[in-house]
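Record 1 of the preview.
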Amino acid sequence: MMENLIFSGWEGVVRPLLAGVLAYFALLIQLRMSGKRTLSKMNAFDFIVTIALGSTLATVLLSKDVAVAEGAVAFATLIVLQFIITWLTVRYQWVNDLVKAQPVLLVYQGAYLHDAMKKARINQDEILSALRSSGVSSFEQVGAVVLETEGTLSVIKEIKNLDYKILENVKKPVNFQEKI
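->
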């Protein structure tokens, strides 16, 4: 019994090794063919596709019931779906709104927007960390901090030269116009 736990024969060792190498190269080739967008910073949809690809790879590696060719078809299906969705998000705003979160304004003209921070579940420490990483030496220098769709914090340093068009697609507080 202990023998099967540690080593149950060479087939159990060789199959995942061969399937892993073949599936890895099939996935690598398909991802390279699909373009840079597939591997860019992830939004929720990208994250789901990445998890699905990883799960498919694990299934191909470990399940004797799934052939490498079947795994390659599963990879291709996920990558084609990713391509179709990204193609649609570029062409149709409603698809983009459905798939991606909207950027959120968290700091404006050196002031925290606490309601937006609560809704986004971002605290002051995270914002201060982003400011330090961006080389900001004074909080009063901050024109804006935006929580982007993929979860990063963007820092706009200059207040006096702030072009409001840069914040065009960013979700703002209800009373934002009063602050300008």
